[in-house]
Amino acid sequence: DGNYCVTGGSDKTLKLWNPRKGTLLRSYLGHGYEVLDAAGSFDNSQLCSGSADKTVALWDVATGQVVRKFRGHAGVSDAGTPAGWQPRPGVTRCHLSSQKVNSVQFNEEATVIVSGSIDSSVRCWDCRSRRPDAIQVLDEAKDGVSSVKVSDHEILAGSVDGRVRRYDLRAGELHSDYVGSPVTCVCFTKDGQCVLVASLAAPLRLLDKDTGEMLGEYSGHRSSACRLDCVLSERDVHVGCASEDGAVYFWDLVE
Amino acid sequence: MAASSDEEEDLVSYGRALPALHEGERLKKPVPLQEQTVKDAKGRYQRFHGAFTGGFSAGYFNTVGTKEGWTPSSFISSRQKRAEKNVLGPEDFMDEEDLSEFGIAPKDITTTEDFASKSKDRIKEKARQLAGIVAAIPGTTAFDDLIGPSKITIGVELLRKMGWKEGQGIGPRIKRKPRRQKPDPQVKVYGCALPPGLSEGSEDEEDEYQPENVTFAPKDVMPVDLTPKENVHGLGYKGLDPTQALCGVPGREHLNLFPGSCEKTDDLLGDLRHTKGRKLGITGQAFGVGALEEEDDDIYATETLSKYDTVLKDEEPGDGLYGWTAPKQYKSKKKFETEVKYIGKILDGFSLASKASTPNKTYPPPDLPRNYRPVHYFRPVIAAGSENCHLRKALEESTGKLENDTTQQSRHTLNASQRGERLGETALKGPAPSVLEYLSEKDRERLKEVRKASEQQMKAKMLPQQSQSSRFQPAAASDAPHKWQMFWGGQLANAGSSDFKPFAKNPEKQKRYESFVQSLKQGQKVEAVDNLDPGMTEWERGREQEEFFRAAMFYKSSSSALSSRFTRAKYEDDVDKVEVPRDQENDIDDKETAVKMKMFGKLTRDKFEWHPEKLLCKRFNVPDPYPDSSIVGLPKVKRDKYSVFNFLTLTEPTTSVTQATNERIQQNNTLDKPKKPSRWDVSDKEKEKKDSISEFISLARSKADAQQQPPAPMTEECRTEANETLPSEVASEDKDQEEESRPSMDLFKAIFVSSSDEKSSSSEEESDEEPQPTVPVINSETTKQADLPDSSSSNVQEIVATTADPGLPLLPVSKKELDVAEEFGPRLPPAFYSGRSCRLPVHNFCIRKEKHKKNREKHRTKRDHKHKKEKKKKQKKHKTKGKHKNKKSEKDSSSDTEDSSDSSSDIDTTGLSPKELLRR
């Protein structure tokens, strides 16, 4: 909700920051390799993080302990990145040496962790039960999954094979949109009608969720090799994206 | 003990007097034995050290955790305090006594025996004193004495008891030869410095002091073994050579702390011993052999040591300035000598061997008889190697071409010729036609063959025959090129070899190849080429020539265009059935273009049915969209591997391009399949036609394959058959195939009546057979096949059976097949498997067709279990696909599962449109 910011770094730790004051609140140790992505639950009570040690960890924010560790991703990225959990755009999340970075997300109720891995699968982990294996493995991607987003009934996964797959749980459908180049980041608009797709060497594209048609295109930033995040502002007014030249670009959504 | 006072002085009292008893005190009762307990120094009961208890006293009598026992450390989870994990050693389980001075692990620093000052043997002491005086620097020996451990081993002690003196060699005493003294009279000699305490000035007296009958102990010498290891024994093992026994001086190693100075003292001591021995006049045989006696020269029979011996002799007079390690200049000089011998360049990273290694014995290979066949070929597996060739190709593709830049290669990756080049040697004219080379080339040329247009068909047909003949009779390989020459001389003339280097990896071979092409162009005899490499065997030469010829023949510069048409096989070929996602994402080619045109939307979107896990839905608070489905994820269908439907996507008007590309991939898949070795033989002949003729050829070919193949991969063949067709024409094609594979009924009757005795009782399958109208199918088939090209059909004919009469080129395929089947059918022996193994595939083929028949024939036992398995899959499929079921309502769920194409064709004949077919 904008009060906390969590970063994962190549120092194998997960750090919780206060973005307002810039103070470090807590750091979480327990990953064996770089922490590649992290996300927080809706109530800020739990964190989940994906690491290069092929595990997805569920953290208790208060105690700093690992609640669960999910193993099952065969291989995770070799390059570490800090990834911010920041609802507001403006923080460049990461500059990566590789676009193959997995990604973790809670679902709305923090009952499921959805993680995308370089092993080209998206796995849904159950936070409630003690099951060691994933609830479901979405292995349709042909290459590493770089970005995962979860809405109330959808799982959006962008893959390096150039496709954005949207698994609609309610309708029981899988929509696969081809964008041509490796997808680095995907995200929903806040109204849930569109999907913003960032891919390498291509402008950001705003795709209609239902039809797959392109509604907008945002270019000007540079993204050739790194996995860079893109975000939408809270009211879907602006589109933000990090660029390889070290800047963050903002576009007007409807421009 | 009490003694009378008068006797007191006479008595001798032993021991201490008991304390006087006090008045009224009772005598103490002795403690009974069972009550006598032992306590340790701290008053603890029954705690002994290891020597008594057989172990540490810790924890004795379950005292762990009690006051007397040791306290176990409290458990600390390693999760919180990871860093504090400490490793317990045995000390943690010991008592304090154990760690005290007399315990088993004393912690205090005490002087050990080695360094403890003890009474040194007097002789040594004296010698040391002597040496201290005599030595050039008078304090060094004392220093050595301080540092060196003075423990004497038992061997030394024994030796000493037997009369050996320290510093003296072991062995029989020898007379000091005047010869030794003569050559170096001017060198300082301490050896006979007689009276202890004599200074250096006494060396002049030496000669005078030497009486005739005095013998000397051999000089004490620490032999240094510098022999290179030549035998296969273990390191340092010399075998039991009595002459070498006791060669070394035991106990000497202790003195090696300061090698130079110690040796110095050794020498000094040795010389002193000489004097002593002479003084005492001890003569006679000590045991063992002196290390440097004359008769032991063979010990150091190697070159280096003999040289070293001479060096020894020089310093033998024993001036202490030369230790064993001292004369460095000798060694270096020797090294230079050897280095001078070699004039060539030395590779960096290598150094010259000091001694030339004995050349390995080489045995010349036996002379082969003239008509020797190195490989035995069985008839059915003619091209057993072609499997490897595909493997090889795949490897090549994956790893990239072999890079030839030798500059960046380290010396470990150099091959022999490159090393030779660096060393400045003349390159060997060696044969290097590796098998892999051959295979890959073959593969390449096979690809070229595919490109060949149909005008070469007739000639190409002759080629495989020739190659086969040459394979079977390698002796005839030399005359085969002549035929080729006659055939191809004209065509080859335009095939320039300037830019085409099929053997670029092997420059020598490439050279040979070029000259080969040259000679072919000029019409020379091909044999001239072979002069280039005399090391090749005749057989190899034949192979290579054949290879060259084909390479030259099929060379076309547009090879890149060709290679682009092939892709990797998508699925593993070994399995009959693959799990294919029912809906596959379309090929991305058209999407690519769509993306470029920014036409997102329908073009770039694929929509699939996707079944989420129930639990996932629950967790997401979403009703399960498919409440009664058991599948998860994309619905998968067990499909026959090469069913057309594996590769079919829903036909949309917009994605026809995709289909075409898909189709291409399929074809390539089937082409690139590395699985079936025997298949390539046939396809070899036909691939050149593949281009011009349409899929009918491939159809025919796969059919022929099915006939030629062993029974196991039969079903796959059927799939390939189905697979080869273009999806755009799928419906009609399907029909064709089905019709082709379904000869008339009397044929089957002919077959299966004869062989019905050994068919299994697969009654359930019997009952499941469905009626099929076959006769109209064949009619349509004949009409369809009428427009087949002659060449292809004749080709098929030829492949189908060599015995088939070639006079029916214009016959439609179905009829032809009938012929074939008839030809094979009646010949069926009642025992199906016995004997005619080569015919078996054909039978299988026929049997497969039998399933479409109306009359219910039994299946063979072998196929039976296979069917059962397939049936299971099929059932699953039926479960998942409801449409399938209701369309085939007349069909039981456990119907014959040949594949979906079969069933579809059934329905096809019953009037379903191809569109519907595709939907399924």
TrEMBL record, chain A:
InterPro entries, per this entry?
WD40/YVTN_repeat-like_dom_sf, WD40_PAC1, WD40_repeat_CS, WD40_repeat_dom_sf, WD40_rpt, WD_repeat_MORG1
Asked if the Swiss-Prot or TrEMBL record annotates the protein with the keyword Magnesium, the reply is no
Where, in residue numbers, are the WD repeats?
A: 1-27, 28-69, 101-126
Q: Which PANTHER family match?
A: WD REPEAT DOMAIN-CONTAINING PROTEIN 83, WD40 REPEAT PROTEIN
Compartments (UniProt record): Cytoplasm
Q: What name does UniProt use for this protein?
A: WD repeat domain-containing protein 83
Which keywords belong to this entry? Cytoplasm, Repeat, WD repeat
Tell me which Gene Ontology terms the entry assigns under biological process: mRNA splicing, via spliceosome
Family label: Belongs to the WD repeat MORG1 family.
Any one Gene Ontology cellular component term annotated for this protein: cytoplasm
Per the record, the gene is: Wdr83
Automatic annotation (TrEMBL), chain B:
* Any one GO molecular-function label of the UniProt entry: RNA binding
An example GO CC term for this entry is: nucleus
A Pfam family the protein falls into: HTH_TGH
Q: Which intervals hold domain G-patch?
A: 151-171
What spans are recorded as compositionally biased (Acidic residues)?
Answer: 201-210
Residues covered by region (Disordered): 169-210, 399-431, 656-811, 844-920
Q: Which PANTHER family match?
A: G PATCH DOMAIN-CONTAINING PROTEIN 1
- What is this protein's record name? GPTC1 protein
List the gene name. Gpatch1
